[in-house]
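Side project, low priority. Logging it here so it doesn't get lost.
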Amino acid sequence: MLADHFATDRLSFPQDRSSFSSFVSNEDKMEEECGVFGMWAPEGATDAAEELYRGLLALQHRGQESAGITIGANSCLHTQKGSGLISQVFDEHSLGAMDGHLGIGHVRYSTAGGTGVGNAQPLQGKSKLGDLAVAHNGTLVNAGVLRSLLEDGGALFRTETDSEVLLAMIARRAAEGLEGAVAEAMSAVKGSYALVMAAGDKLLGARDPHGIRPLVLGRREDRWYLATESCALAAVGAETVRDLEPGEVILIDADGPRSIVQDLANERATCVFEYIYFARPDSRIDGISVMNSRLAMGRELAREWKVQADLVCGVPDSGVPAALGFSRESGVPYGLGFIKNHYVGRTFIHPDQAMRERAVSVKLSVMAEEVEGKRVLLIDDSIVRGTTSRRLVNLMREAGAKEVLFGVVSPPVQSPCYFGIDTPVAEDLIAHKMDIEAICNVLGADELAYLSLEGLKRALGKGDGFCLGCLTGTYPIPPHRLRA
């Protein structure tokens, strides 16, 4: 049971996050994606809600704005969702009231549609196929065009999300059966998506034709699971079976999982930032260990950048494995330079830029005893706007560091993302308008180095199969075709 978890203290956030979101900072990071989780058990099981809760807890790092669970029993679906963390939306009582043998769940960071609870997922509706519910990670870049066409045909929408467009398209083709309706919808949409769907007594998963967003299949005895990351499978005691292939749709029912054959797959282009930043280090995506890839990124940077330093420190959390890799390769001692306050959430936007930058110190504090009088090398996963990186350098200097060097284990982020990552427009990306020397001056660092694109590919163990659009400006779907 979950009594021990719910007995602990939990953070208190405003329940109306639609107003809260208007003064929450986007921070200086590639913002998180959503997380989806689905499970199917034989009829008679009643603990689907508890399983979904545990899986979503493991995916909480991917979205903190809202959370929701849909439970299925006797071919009927019931959805509960709300604003905030999964532990704020659900408690032991609410989960205990949701008996069922299958379901889907979602944790959200909004990239399309507002942050209000009305746009929280899963989204549920009725059709000739019966009750349907969908939870979606990614962005349908032609959702506006499809929404307009559906509205011209009389469709009504209750949310601003592109996920509802997908649900409406499936319902519209209900006469073709579930498999045909899903196949037809997938052939029409463009962009990135990994989705889980509950339809009567069936669980369905789908991955976009380029595999930009991850989705993995797991199993525990006679139970089957679908999850954005493999760490969520481990949270429910399931083993990873395999990653879904690009363009694959998988249907799970009493006969077990079966792949729906479609001629949709294109060249694989998994988002490279899943490995650099988004995914939990204990996950594997498309057969690649996230932890090992981050260690390797640090090693590759150390091979490319022969720098003298007394101490190497990782910027929590995703910079820490890379800093360990750098230390092991270079021989520079690893130190605990920062302590992170995990109970803050996102920093608030203050009236001016200086106050926004000082808010970083609420989340991170420096271990002065570790860095005082030393030449300190900071390792971070990326630099987007540069505002947070500048504040980190200043914090180190204020704590007494003799020199501050800055290493980045991704190439410069020069272009926006069109596939669901909340990146600024190109003009707001510091690497779009400045060279490395100028960026170093803005940060106030003594030296700055980025990992090369070739080094990143070596760290990942292969040179292709990734979406590198934000790093190179070359996308798996050219921008001029995105809304065609």
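Brief comment: Residues 1-26, 111-115, 346-352 have pLDDT under 50 and may be disordered.
Revisit when time allows.
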